[in-house]
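>> received
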Amino acid sequence: MLKIDLGKLKERSDDLATFLEEKLSIKPSMEGDEIILKDEEAKARLKKSSVKTYLKRYLHINDLRRSYRVLVESDELKFVELKVEED
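>> returned
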């Protein structure tokens, strides 16, 4: 089971869940500001690295890649907001 902590991106939870469902062929469940992916529903074991890649791809598609990054801690992936330095 993998948890994805959305942090400040919780308003995009439905869009992100739909994106992950298309890519992973798994129906994610929502609990508060977290998305839960269960291994039992997957045909193959979920790899944190592949889920992280899809999350980064989602950020890139929605032009959020410069504002957020994805961190992995045990069985949890987190969106962390980056501090933007102004020139």
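>> Residues 25 and 43 are 9 Å apart (CA to CA).
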